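User:
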Amino acid sequence: MQTIPLINLTYMLLPLCVVAFFYYLWVGKKAEIALATARMSIQLILIGYVLTSLFTTNALWLLALLVAVMITTASLIVRRNLHHQDFQTYSAILVAIALGGSINLALVLWCVLDLENPLDPRFVIPLAGMIYANAMNAISLAAERYEKEREHHEKEKARAIAFRASMIPQINSFLAVGFVSLPGMMTGQILSGVDPLIAVRYQIVVMAMILSSGAMSNILYLSYAVSKEPNI
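Assistant: Predicted structure:
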């Protein structure tokens, strides 16, 4: 696969600067895009070194630690957008992401892929990253929307609106894949020389696990939210 020279990465700063300018002009936060870009770059470089070590040693403790960091960080990112940021809410988010994501991850690793070693880091980490990140985004949409809808609707109605809104990106992806877009994993496999028909099989698995993990995490969190909220 073609290696990207480090100097060439700086070209991507040009559109980011345009985005940062309008974000500051319209939103008023001049440093948020810059900080997010810096954090993204640092995190990816660090994880590159961690994965190199993990793939070399195949240490189960390091694999478990990395998955735990994924789940914990995803839960903290979800909580930052909510009005209620107490420990109980954070715990519910953490459990929802962990359960909803891990069920789908285990199903793919042990049943779908039929691997000789289901705990091979080269499979676990990329799949876990996609699953938990998607669950994070889904709960972020559902939880924030639920809080707003509770100001105007009873909890069951607010739950329905929030759940449907949180599923729009995943359902749109299902409808658009193939004709409108080639998803990242499939594109990467094709660029690396994999037969497109093999890449399609992997992408179907990825699309199904992404929708299922996000929806299951939302179901768990919204069930908790409804159980603790009184009607208005």
